Amino acid sequence: MKHRLMKTGRATRAVHGARYGAFQAPVVQPIVQSVTYRFANSSDVLRYARGDESVYVYSRYRNPTTEQLKEAVAAVEDAEDAHIFSSGMAAITTTILALAPQGSEIISGPALYGGTYRFFRDIAPNHGIRIHFFDPRNLDTLSQLLTERTRLIYFETPTNPTLSIVDIKGVVLRVREAQKKLRKHIPIVLDNTFATVFNQRPLQLGVDLTVESATKYIGGHLDVLAGIVAGDKRLVSVISGYAKYLGGTPDPFASFLLLRSLKTLHLRIHQQNKNAMELAKFLEEHPKVRRVFYPGLPSHPDHEIAKRQMSGFGGMVTIEVSGGVRSASRVVDSLQIAVNATSLGGVETLVSIPILTSHINMSKAELAQHGVTPGMIRISVGVEDIEDLKNDFARALGRV
């Protein structure tokens, strides 16, 4: 906890570090709700034309509120640089398009957020990008897939929604060994949305970039859409250049809300971790629950890997009930505290059925690849009283 508090303090100092004219910075970062900016004189325009990006010109390029957020995110992530986007998918797709040119290949983990998978399946081929999937249970398959055309390694851990754990150091080791033979650097990108930096620090394990849907845990209140990428300064610069023209720019008010949320991130994650562990243990003992997926449980097949690379096991729990989607729907519809809604990471507990939400419109083979079954319920555990949550799920499961 001391470590997490220290990181949040650094973010707070980054927020408070600016000065405004003749007076010191306010405690709360102001919202600069302006599209364009007044030049002191034409020399400012000339400086910008010559490449001085510190000159504010247009808020699709840079905005003072968003710049403060960028500095705070980089401080929390221990990253050389960061960039902010209007959504998690904007962060993911811009990163992929910036780093994987036409004719290149991407090697990906097989279990992904549904939106990312559908982008790989339906959109990437239109740009001449081929996707290959490695087996996280046999990382030698990753080494075998690497070729001269490989431009990017992409994966997530814990995975959505089965909470499988991929060995981050194992991936990094194999990629770095292979790139020596290929004589080129291959960027490794990890989606850290489920864990967040307070439970898992991929950059310290050798990953080049992390992406997150900041809509989720960083925002934490289900009231803002945003995404981030953080890590290697050179790569972030390339991605930022693409973002300028692809246009996934956050509104200044969204940046303001995220600056607010960063101040309590460690407090929320601590409570969500604690609640998720207790709820997972409770549900594992419930006779109506077939399986519980939570990396903090000794019964989880990847528990030992999770212990090595995570400082906390997160706030996501997935369960499977008998009777398929019909039984899952009965449970979800019977809950009174937990809310039947998509998304995750907020202070409220949310539940969803993956085959009807995040993994909709996938074939049986694709669902099997992702490990998703009809009876699965994904639970984003909030900060409510844990006994209330246990009673809520006990009542709902009694309806099955």
List low-pLDDT spans. 1-6, 14-19
CATH topology (level 3) name of the largest domain = Aspartate Aminotransferase, domain 2
Extended strand count:
14
Classified by CATH, the class of the largest domain is: Alpha Beta
Helix content: 40-55%
Summed up, the helix count is: 14
Query: How would you spell out the order of helices and strands?
Result: HEEHHEHEHEHEHEEEHHHEHEHEEHEH
Strand content: 5-15%
Shape verdict:
globular
* Protein structure class: alpha/beta
Look at the structure and give the mean pLDDT: 93
Q: Number of folding domains?
A: 2
Radius of gyration: 22 Å
CATH architecture of the largest domain: 3-Layer(aba) Sandwich
Question: What's the structural blueprint in terms of helices and strands?
Answer:
Layout: H1 2-16, E1 19-20, E2 23-24, H2 42-49, H3 64-77, E3 81-85, H4 88-99, E4 105-108, H5 114-123, E5 130-133, H6 140-145, E6 150-156, H7 168-182, E7 188-191, E8 209-213, E9 227-231, H8 233-246, H9 252-262, H10 265-284, E10 289-293, H11 303-309, E11 316-321, H12 324-334, E12 339-340, E13 350-352, H13 364-370, E14 376-380, H14 386-397
Parallel strand pairs: 4-5, 4-6, 6-7, 7-8, 12-13
Antiparallel strand pairs: 1-2, 3-9, 8-9, 10-11, 11-14, 13-14
Report on this model:
This protein is an alpha/beta fold. The chain folds into 2 domains: about 1-30 and about 65-260, Aspartate Aminotransferase, domain 2; about 265-395, Alpha-Beta Complex (Aspartate Aminotransferase, domain 1), CATH 3.90.1150.10. About 40% of the residues lie in helices and about 15% in strands. It has 14 helices and 14 strands. The chain has helices at about 1-15, 40-50, 65-75, 90-100, 115-125, 140-145, 170-180, 235-245, 250-260, 265-285, 305-310, 325-335, 365-370, 385-395; strands spanning about 20, 25, 80-85, 105-110, 130-135, 150-155, 190, 210-215, 225-230, 290-295, 315-320, 340, 350, 375-380. A 7-stranded mixed β-sheet has the order 3-9-8-7-6-4-5, sandwiched between helices. Strands 10-11-14-13-12 form a 5-stranded mixed β-sheet. A hairpin with a 2-residue loop joins strand 1 and strand 2. The radius of gyration is 22 Å and the shape is globular. The two termini are about 40 Å apart. The model is unreliable at about 1-5 and about 15-20 (pLDDT under 50).
